[in-house]
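User: Can you predict the 3D structure for this chain?
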Amino acid sequence: MEKKRLKKQWCLYGSVGALFLGSGLSLISEAGHWKHQGTNILYWVGGGILGLALAISGVVFLINAGILKERIRKL
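Assistant: Here is the predicted structure, written as structure tokens:
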């Protein structure tokens, strides 16, 4: 039962991590475009900060998924 729960958690963490990392990197790139287009500073700075937060959160989720995968392998 423990292994099944860990596999579900691993799948969830991996999916959320990939989604957050991809969204964060896309938002960082978009914020760079907004800056060069002369958009209001609040939009591109806020977008860049939010993109960084999403990307870092995605990396954390992916690391946790890797840790879970190792625990599953040991069972």
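The radius of gyration is 17 Å. Helices lie at 2-37, 41-74.
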